[in-house]
């Protein structure tokens, strides 16, 4: 059975995925044009625009982050919203400090 720790390392291996996580740390500061509440996260379309790459590429990166447990998604109407999973990130950092 694969180690979830390894999935997180693989997800963090790509610079754009690390950048997305950094943007999601301060959603209001990085996505001020979002018209609805930040409570459930940032609309995938907003992330697409900020990345400057194909929508399908951004979707694949978001899916990788979600599979690794680093972001959560929530659907509101037609929008898919993404948010950092702060608890999962804290647990990963704690495990990392114990292993190294």
Automatic annotation (TrEMBL):
Keyword Signal tagged: no
Keyword Iron: no
PROSITE patterns documented for this protein: HTH_ARSR_2
All residue ranges annotated as the HTH arsR-type domain in the record: 1-100
This protein's UniProt keywords: DNA-binding, Transcription, Transcription regulation
Pfam entry (one): HTH_20
Protein name: Helix-turn-helix transcriptional regulator
Source organism of this protein record: Pseudomonas typographi
């Amino acid at each position: 059975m694969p180690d979830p720790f390894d999935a997180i390392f693989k997800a963090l291996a790509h610079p754009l995925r690390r950048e997305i996580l950094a943007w999601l740390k301060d959603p209001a500061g990085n996505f001020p044009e979002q018209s609805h509440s930040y409570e459930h996260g940032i609309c995938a379309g907003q992330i697409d625009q900020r990345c400057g790459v194909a929508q399908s590429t951004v979707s694949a990166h978001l899916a990788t982050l979600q599979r690794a447990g680093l972001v959560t998604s929530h659907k509101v109407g037609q929008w898919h919203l993404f948010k950092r999973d702060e608890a999962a990130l804290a647990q990963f950092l704690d495990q990392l400090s114990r292993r190294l």
